[in-house]
Amino acid sequence: MDIKQNTANAQEMTKRLNTTSINIRKWGIELETHGYNFN
Q1: 11: Cβ–Cβ under 8 A, 6 or more apart, which residues?
Q2: Cβ pair 19, 11 in contact under 8 A
C-alpha cells in the first residue's frame, strides 16, 4: 500500500495558521512529546 504524504515547511505553515515560526516549532516539539513522529 502506498501512502502519499503532503509536506509543508515552517514558512508555509506560518502563513496558513497565521502565526509565527517559533510557535510552529513549539507545537511540533509538543506533539512529538505526545507520541506524534515527524520525518
Answers
A1: 21
A2: no
